[in-house]
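> tool_call: predict_assembly(chains=two)
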Amino acid sequence: MGTVTLRPPPARVPEAIARLRAGTVGNLARALAGNRKALVGSAMLAFFAFCALFPGVLAADDPNAEIYARGAAPSAAHLLGTTSYGQDVFSQLIWGTRQSLVIAVVVGGLATVLSVAIGVTAAYLGGIADDVLSLFTDVFLVIPAFPLIVVIAAYSKNGGDTILIAVLVATGWSYGARQLRSQALSLRSRDFLVAAKLRGERRWRIIVFEILPTMTSLIVANFLGAALYAVLAAAGLQFIGLGNPSSMSWGTMLYWAENNEALQAGMPLWAVMPGVAIAMLGGAFSLLNFAFDEIGNPALRPVRRARGRRHP
Amino acid sequence: MRYVLRRLGFFVVTLWSCLTINFVLPRLMPGNPAIAMMARFRGRVNGQVLHALEIAFGVNTRQSEIAQYFGYLGNTLTGHLGVSLTFFPNTVLQVVRSAILWTVVLVGVTTIIGFVLGTLIGMISGWRRGSKLDSILPPVFVVTSAFPYFFVALLLLLAFSITLGWTPLGFGYANTDTIGWTWHFVGDVLDHAILPACTILVTSIGGWILTMRNNMITTLAEDYVRMARAKGLSPARIMIDYAGRNAILPNLTGFAMSLGFVVSGAILVEYVFSYPGLGYMLLEAVQNEDFALMQTLFLLITIAVLVAILVVDFVTLVLDPRTRSEK
């Protein structure tokens, strides 16, 4: 064998790595733009974000004012009619966006942080630590979340939104942790991690700078899943009257509509529209989630001209 | 054997966590909310029953917390679950017994139908990728799976009960019925169950379709599928015995893991239809601040999910030879 010449490493390495990193985000953005499901999902989400930020632009009426005709049918003045308290349904719908969206984003974010912390740590540490953390995750995953939320909400009556968010985070992180753990496990023996370990990098550095960037799409998908869960669970809780009944949100609208038997009393829009809104917001999250699944796993992307290529 | 023991161990650990949650929660809350409930019991129940409730909720008792904990565990495991405030003077056990069958039949049967149907559709749409079926069903169900259960329930109620008047408004059977194994009664029960069942089906089936389809696509790229093709086996055989059988394994695990979500949704469905099952009773107990009943129901729902998971584990044992090998 010939002599091994030890060349100094190219000076540009850090920049090259930086470009690579920027490339991951850039690739993600490009993949998003090219995916129809992702586009539809983002557009819907953007619309809801606009409603949450500037509700006054779309609905000038005060959503709480009980000043209009009671139980009126839809008209030009009241696009979706009024409630049996004389509030404008359309206005309530628009103003209610904010709380639902905030809960979704905050719970989604916190739950994702928790599932990354627990899932990736478990996979990376291995051994007994992994066994304990995995068991912990599975137990949380299996205990039916909604009954648990109901029980906690029952004990802490009128506990406010902070408790609601805390409970949703506590019950919403486990699914993601499990997914992230198995993804991280499959990465553990890859060369670039071995190299990092040999370089003498510290553990947290390896986790944060080497493992996490490769899992971006899964982490985003987890955020979306947790946000979807939060929207549905919060609405369900408010619907059965365990939220704050004076808060302005879609779930609370449903609660009052159900209490006043809006369906039977000829005000179906009062009960149906908040549900439609929840379903649309949930649909936006779930479309984006589906798209990220496809981005993260190219095998799932829709095949074009599959017929011609089936038998190569 | 190892696998079976591990799964049984998981069952026990989860059950224990659940009991512990029940014990700790009322004590964690500022100003133990059970005190008010206990005040309503005073003078109505005999000493022994009252004592069991005091131990369970940590009210008026001079025992240490640890003694209370073991007392509570012992009482629960021996079936001393206390008295229901809502259905006084019935014990919690008696009350719960009347509701359990309704939920097991409604939620159990629809969940199994949903899983089987969803897995089949997912398998076929993964097999025929890009076909008409594949480009319509999965995206549609992505959207419906984001629908809140109670919203689908409300829509169906509005369409079929209120507008068309085809189905009853709610509850498990008509008030005028006498309960028994008569054709009339069974027909009536089915009549009342069809809307809740459809609700659970529509909202839960999407998840099974999607995961099965995705597993199927991953499995189809495996060498043994190519091998099967090269051998010239019939497409149906490759789809079911080679790809399908392997693709269903992660789906089964997923089934076990997402049962909790289905059950959670079923509670809301029961609420909308006033269906006399465990979920409706849970919310009733919450509204009446009947904590003993509420705790028991939470426990029971968890046990139901855990038992279903054990069943899935044994099915996996049959389907996946790897779980049987001793390592």
